Amino acid sequence: MQAEAVPSYKMFVGGAWVDSHSGRNYPVFDPAAGRVLAHIPKGDAEDVNAAVDSAKKAFEDPAWRHIDPSKRGRVLYKIALTLREKLGEFAKLETLNNGKPLGQAKGDVAQSARHFEYFAGMADKIQGSTIPVPGNRFDYTVKEPLGVTAHVVPWNYPLAMAARSIAPALAAGNTVVAKPASFTPLTLLKFAELCKEAGLPDGAFNVLTGGGEEVGGALAKHRDVKLVALTGSVETGVQVAHGAASSLARTVLELGGKNPVVVFADSDLDKAAEGVLNGIFTNAGQMCWAGSRLLVEAGVKEPLMERLVRGAVAMKLGSGLLPDTKMGPLVAGSQREKVSGYVELGLKEGAKLSTGGSAPDDDGLREGYFYRPTILDNVEQDMRVAREEIFGPVLTVTSFEEEDEAVLKANDTDFGLWAGVWTRDLSRAHRMAERLEAGIITVNEEPVTFPQTPFGGFKWSGNSSEQGLDAISSYVRVKNVSVKLD
Ligand code: NAD
Predict the structure, then answer these.
(1) Which position among 132, 301, 338, 419 has the lowest Cβ density within 10 Å, counted as fewest Cβ atoms?
(2) Which atom of ligand 1 is nearest to the CA of 288?
(3) What is the DSSP string of 3-48?
């Protein structure tokens, strides 16, 4: 039997499909089967120069620069509409390349469309103000696009994380160069095709593939890039910030998390258990805002743990394309090694394994990068598994006796992205929301977000917010105009 041919992709620059100038390629994988899915161009600084040049030309072209902003909004809306029409195709490709269950991939594509719908409506509402000043003067502000913006994207939500920052950048009139994560470039490349069909002018949206340092690093340092939006790890965030500082470019950094979920004794334990499980095992735990640190009031630890272990054991692992799969593989073998290394470390540090802690060896799972849903009990605050982002299906469990202790433990982290609270006491819910140091708080639910609600982290988790009305301010500059009237 002849092996199926592996397709080769190209990058999207200036409205055309191009190879990397060096001609180099690299393979990307189907993580559920460990097989090569496609060959992808390996871009570098020369490709970055070409893409930024084309984005700069498109930015300066009156066809985009002076387009009726309502029409710009309509182009974005058309992108959203077409994405919804092709939701199934995009979701299948996301599942193949990332491994996530198809239902979750469909949710991601719908979320990507929602980002474009939300910001499509904002394109003709980016307006300045008039300011009362002394004397016979008329003073007003104008909000202008920045120019070329770069978008460096992670592999856990390959399309949705790209859409989240690209939609406001385009709505504000910027032009874009995007770099998907090396593991998962396929949906963003397909999206480029869709943007062209929807009427984005050539050069307004470019996609470069390749390594983090070679492409992302070169984009961050490029003198003509006016903003770098990175969703990624803290380490990469620091490097990107250094690179961007060399040309005083703005940064929008959405980074990692080590997020507490606090369950009080008065909560509905069935609902809390379900929420905790979804909060850590969705997307195989590869989520910046995964509720990875359970803090449970000592009095209900035992009944909650029973429910959690039962739920984790019942979770069906498999290819994301199979209808009954609840958890797919990790994105890559290297990621699975990292996760299993942390679990071993946690056990050495004194944690107790309640369930999981290994890769399955069953038929259909052996070849992929699967790892069982894992719960580590008796975790102390000073253990590395309680302090470092594992970024996989691993929940740590720590108990507390009363509210102040819960707050201390929840905030005892370098990160500050998300925090969850489970309680039936309304006053305590609001008090906790005020006391927890995180950019996003959810009460009595697993982590939720919408395009209209701000998403951003405190402390090491980032330096700004995406989504919501205010997100657009990152993507515009403000000009003040003072007119002396005789
Ligand atoms: P990563 O930092 O390794 O990579 C993110 C992107 O940056 C990729 O495109 C990568 O190629 C690129 N990159 C790597 N090194 C670079 C460099 N030196 N200069 C410029 N670009 C570089 O992160 P990842 O492993 O893809 O994603 C996981 C991380 O992303 C986790 O820490 C997770 O918490 C975080 N994340 C945060 C959010 C959020 O909204 N806060 C959302 C999703 C993921």
Answers:
(1) 132
(2) 34
(3) PPPPPB--EEETTEEE--TT--EEEEEETTTTEEEEEEE---HHHH
Question: In the structure encoding, which two tokens stand for residue 202, read together?
Answer: 């050539």
Q: Which of 67, 74, 10 is nearest to 43 (CA)?
A: 10
Residue 282, φ and ψ in degrees, nearest 5: -60, 145
Q: Which tokens belong to 151?
A: 């978008």
Residue whose entry in the numeric block shows the structure tokens 């893409």? 51
Sequence-distant (≥ 6) Cβ neighbours of residue 212 within 8 angstroms: 152, 182, 236
- How far apart (Å, rounded) are the C-alpha atoms in residues 304 and 225? 50
Confidence of residue 473 (pLDDT cuts 50, 70, 90): very high
Strands in 198-328 per DSSP E: 205-207, 225-231, 250-254, 260-263, 293-297
Q: Is 460 near ligand 1, meaning CB less than 6 Å away? A: no
Nearest residue (CA) to ligand 1, atom 43 = 288
254 is catalytic: yes
pLDDT in tens, 217-246: 999 999 999 999 999 999 999 999 999 999
- What is the enclosing helix (H) or strand (E) of 420? strand 418-422
Is 427 exposed, middle or buried (CB count within 10 Å of its CB: 0-12, 13-18, 19+)? exposed
- Of ligand 1's listed atoms, the one at least distance from the Cα of 211 is 11
CA distance 442 to 411: 15
Counting from 1 in the atom list of ligand 1, the atom nearest the Cα of 155 is: 26
Nearest CA to ligand 1 atom 40: 254
Q: How far is the CA of 270 from the centre of ligand 1 (A)?
A: 34
What is the DSSP secondary structure assignment for residue 315, as one 8-state letter? Answer: P
Smallest CA-to-CA distance from 464 within 237, 210, 172, 247 is with 237
| Contact criterion met (CB below 8 Å) for 221 and 246 | yes
Paired tokens of 480: 């003040």
Catalytic one of 254, 297, 389, 466: 254
- Tell me the average pLDDT across 196-204: 97
Beta strand pairing status for 148-152 and 225-231?
parallel
Q: Is 288 a catalytic residue?
A: yes
| Mean pLDDT of the region 350-360 | 98
Which residue is closest in CA terms to ligand 1's atom 35?
A: 232
Give the confidence band of 4 by pLDDT, cuts at 50, 70, 90: confident
pLDDT tens string 270-317: 999 999 999 999 999 999 999 999 999 999 999 999 999 999 999 999
The answer to pTM > 0.85 is yes
pLDDT at 1: 46
Q: Which of 442, 385, 386, 374 is nearest to 410 (CA)?
A: 386
Q: How far is the CA of 92 from the centre of ligand 1 (A)?
A: 23
Ligand 1 touching residue 389 (CB < 6 A) = yes
pLDDT band of residue 481 (cuts 50, 70, 90) is very high
